[in-house]
Structure formats: structure tokens, C-alpha cells
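Problem 12. The chain below contains 614 residues. Write out its predicted structure in C-alpha cell notation.
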Amino acid sequence: MDINSDRKDVLLIGVLVIFAIIVIKLFSIQIINSEYRESAQNNALKFETRYPARGLIRDREGRIIVGNKITYDIHVTPYNVPEFDTLEFCRIFDVDTSYINERFRFYKANRRKIGYQSMTILKQISGEQYNVFVEKGFMFPGFEGVPRTSRTYNYNAGGNLLGYISEVDQDYIRKHPEYRSGDYAGRTGMEEAYEEILRGQKGYTIYLRDAHNQIKEHYRDGEKDVAAVAGKDVTTTIDAPLQAYGEKLMRNKVGSLVAIEPSTGEILTMVSSPGISTDKLAEINKYYNEIVSNPYRPMYNRAVMSPQPPGSCFKVVNALIGLQEKVVTPANRYSCNRGFIVGKLKVGCHGHPSPLDFYQAIQMSCNAYFCHVFRNIIDNPKYGSVREAFNKWKEYTESFGFGTKLGTDIPSEQAGTMPTAERYDKLHGKNKWKSLSIISLSIGQGEIGCTPLHLANFAATVANRGYFYTPHIQKDTPEMPIDERFKERRYTMVDTSYFKEVIKGMQMAVNGGPGSTARVAQIPGITVCGKTGTAQNPHGDEHSVFICFAPMDDPKIAVAAYVENAGFGATWAAPIASLLVEMYLKGEISPQRKDLENRITSTSLMHKVRVKKK
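Solution.
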């Protein structure tokens, strides 16, 4: 056998096989697969992006809250720009000549990298400016306008809730590779939460260039063009006029106002004050530095991001737990001598009749009564230790949603804070703490922190007699159904039969006689059930808090108002919440409550809030 001859044959066959593969591949690339041929022609093609109209945001009645208007980006192809009248160009668009000169220095320094590409030199130009530019277009060869949409707002309300859109940066693109430089995306609020629905899909038009890099014609008569697909509209649960009225009530105050429809969990209103004016929201890039340097932090959504002590509103939670644990009954009476006193420990209280029963304790917000209730819960002999009883208490509170994220569709929701046994071990020593060591929890102070959304959800839970729906801002529609989790009832660990007892006390707090803490919240013709709170604050004046729902039977709205550093709950939070309830249920404010409305809307409390000036 001739081994050398066999090797030559194998080598020859190998060469022929490789040659055949190359021929087939070239045939596929050049004849069969047009994509490769089109890629080779890319230096002769110009792709012009077509941006889609962003989806509208509507309120619960279909009213447009956020719409669109046509604006233009001005693109420039530096390779095609001769000497031009820079002063006239800047005059048309009201820009500084230094900016244009700096841009062209950049283009010149990067001319090889840029080549024939078009660059965005100005963004979101108004239609009026663009029309002037078109009239004088002959003066500016190499420049062109590309239409796109920007946001408009039909109500100057809800800036924090709605959020803003802005051009994506490289960090955003790294996290979301489907975006490209020049794209816009929702960065906060609903614009962020529903970005995938609202954004739509980009398209493009392909043009053929001639040898002089001039646009010659549509490539293949537009056969390869891709039309932009507009974003889908989103219908929210927000009541736009009510949102605007809520912001009017909270004007010149720091805090939050949240309203929920108890029967669905739909958020009717979510005010964070001070907020962002929609005029500035529409031009966020222009006002961004001013907004973020504001010491009152208008971009901070206090409704879901600001855990604070709930104050006396939390007494209702302890009342329900006490009833469930059978350590208190509506007939139980406790004395109050300006507070709860054990040895050197004193929890102060305001003046009111004494002794009080269960209903009167809620009506008059007696600290001493609920200190007794809390001690009964924690010192309950059926549990083997204070630690075990406390952990059971914590389990109850978490069933109401406190100390947890509720799971809403609002970005940046915070869980709040709820103390643990381990934390008290560190504070007081392991197994060395007693009910008196944590007695501040009885009146919603100490280590508890909850957001205004938690409080509004709690008010809705009481209104429903023991269950709640996860709060949400997307309206359930046939075109865009909500997630099933928003339709599930979430029951607390307290039997529904006990809620009628606390509701009676809350009804008396608003509609009872002397000593009732929330009589200012009375609405003619409507039975309101509420609870005031005055939350202690180590950094200044106390916070004014109020929760309520109405009507008492078949409730339509549940509200939480939290006004920071404003003092007693009855002074500010209660009237604000009740005015919102009245406007929603009646569509107007009763003549006898107009003076109250005027006092609320005309008073500024901003000076009471301590902020760090920048």
C-alpha cells in the first residue's frame, strides 16, 4: 500500500470539501440571503427612526390625565453642513451660540467615527419653532427635524404619582439593552410602572443615498420600512378632579393624603406634598436641578416612601387584637388620671371624663385605656412568655399589612418598620423586657413606622369589617385586566364580628358629644367613622394624623391624612380628610363647611417643618 498516495488523496478531498463549503456559503450570502447584501449596502442607506406616540394615561372615568403633543428633535449630519448662520439658527431655537459651537467642535474632533451619521443636536422643539425653521430651511443644509411626542397634562395634579419620562442614559441601557441612545423611558411613578405598556414600538424609514451622500429615494419603494406602533393607553383608578382637590387641600403643607375605595382596593387619590408641578414635569430636564435641590424633596412620594409613627390611629389595631384575644370587652372600664402611671413610668393623656368604657376610649382617644389593653395582650397568661405573646401580637399587626410591603403596583413602596423580639433583646437584654418596656406600642409610638398608604389601607380594612384588597392604581378593564392578586380578599387574623365594636367607637369619635376628638370631621347627611392621631416627633412639632371611612354602612371611600409637624390630628388632618370625603361623595362642600375649607386651603404650615437648606 502506498501510504503517501493515500495521504495525498485525503488532503485533496479535504481541500475540495472546504472549497465546496466556501462556494455554498458565498452563494447563500450573495444570492439567497438578501439581509447580507443589504448590510453591505448600509453605507448607502439611511435609517430614520420613527418614534411611536406614547400611550395615554386616563383616570377612572376615562378622562385624559396625561396626553401627547407633537414636538421635534433637530438632527444634523455634520458631513453635509457647510458654513451657516449660527446666530440665526440660535435665534430660531432660543439656544446659546456657545452650545452650538461646542457641538460642532465635538463633531469635528470625532468626524471619522461619526462619518455620515446623523446626530441629535436639539430635543423637544416646539411646533412653533419648528415651523420657523422649516421656512428658513434653505439656510441650514444638513439639518432636519424628526417628529416625536412629548407629554401634556390636563390637570395640574398628581406629578409624583404620574412620574416623568426622560432620555435614557448609558446606565439605563446597560440594564435595558432593548433601548438605544435617544430613546425615552418612564423613570418614576406610573410612567415607570407601566413603561412596557405605554412605550409602544419604534419604526424606521430607509432612504437610499447617492454618491454625494444626498437622499435619493425610498429604499425599495418603502418595502422594508417598519411603521411605529403607538403605545397602549392605561386607565388608572385615580379620580382626576378629586386628585386636584386633594392637592389643593395639601397645598403649602408637608405630608400625604391617600384615598381608597374599600370594595375594590382602587386608589382614588394619592397626594404627596409638596409635589411636582406638571408644568415642570413636562420639561423635567429644564427643571431637574431645581427640583432635586428643593429641601422639601418634591420628588419624594411620601405616600409610599415615608414611614412615620401612626400615633393614636394605631389604638384601633390594639383594640381589635384585644377583642380577638378576649383580654378586653366593650364593657371593660379603666380610669385615666391624665395618663397611665405605674411607678416612675407615666404615659400622659389629655383631660376627659373617667373612667371610660371601650367605645368611649376610642371616642376620646384615651392613652391610659389602651395601655391597659396592650398590657393585657402582652401579659396574657395563656402564652408561656412575654416574648411569645409579643410575637403573636406582631403576627396580628402584620395581617393588617403593617410592617410589610402591601404589594401595590406603585414603584418604590416601602414596608415601614415593625419591631422584633430580637431588637428588644438588644435594647433591654435578652428576656429582660416586659410589657411596660414596650408600652409605647400601645398608642402607635416607639418602633412602629407605617406609610400613609398603610394607614389608608387599614381604614379600608375596618370599613370592610376585616379584609382588604391590595391597593392598586391600574383600573381593571376588559382591554387590560389587572393581576389576579389585586382581586383577592386578604383577611386579617381578627374575626369580622369584632369590627362592629371599633366602628361604633370611631363613629362616636366623629359624631358623639363633648370629648369626641374628631367632631370637626362631621359631614351633613353622611355618617363618617374616624380616628385621630397625634404622632410624637423627636425632630419638631407633632404630626397630625387622621383615618376615616364613609358612609358607615356600605362605605365608598377610606382616607388617611398625614400632615407633618402640624400638631393635633383634629386640627389639620381630620378636616382635610373629611373635606376630601365630602367632595367625593357629594361633589361639593356644604355651605356651613366653606369657612373650614377656606382655612385649610389658605394656611401654610411649611414653616413648621425643619429642613436642611442646600
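Discussion. The chain has two domains: 45-235, 240-608. Students who got a different answer should revisit the alignment rule from Section 12.3.
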